[in-house]
Design a protein that fits this description.
Elements (H helix, E strand, L loop, with lengths): L1 E5 L2 E4 L4 E8 L7 E7 L6 E7 L5 E3 L7 E6 L4 E6 L8 E8 L14 E2 L3 E6 L1
Parallel strand pairs: 2-11
Antiparallel strand pairs: 1-3, 3-8, 4-5, 4-9, 5-6, 7-8, 9-10, 9-11
């Protein structure tokens, strides 16, 4: 499975952006899709995940109530709607796909496929 992330950009604090992650390949399937983010010099951080059927969602505490993850199964696309953005949300955002349930929703190592990253910059 290949993942293509897009939608990043420059936005003022309090603004919104919507990231997209399109999955493609011979057989597009999995257990869940997640968004991670990374600031230079820091470890990659889990942001949110959605189950493959789109019914279940998970968020890290710092984005709860501001970000919404969703999945359009017909388009094999996962979205991350980001509202009330803060300067500390500035990072490169990556989407990732896990084929299996695993042990930890937020563990990088459980995701086999990764998109190329899209930069989100929130100005103060």
């Amino acid at each position: 499975v290949q993942l293509q992330a897009s939608g990043g950009g420059l936005v003022p604090a309090g603004g919104s952006l919507r990231l997209s992650c399109v999955a493609s390949g011979r057989t597009v399937t999995g257990h869940r899709v997640a968004w991670f983010r990374q600031v230079p010099g820091m470890p990659r951080e889990f942001v949110a995940a959605v189950s493959w059927n789109g019914r279940f969602t998970y968020y890290t505490d710092s984005v709860k109530g501001r970000f919404t993850i969703s999945k359009d199964s017909a388009q094999n696309t996962v979205y991350l709607q980001m509202d009330s953005l803060k300067p500390e949300d500035t990072a490169v955002y990556y989407c990732a796909l896990a084929q299996y349930l695993g042990l930890a929703m937020n563990a990088e190592k459980e995701y086999e496929s990764w998109g190329q990253g899209t930069l989100v910059t929130v100005s103060s």
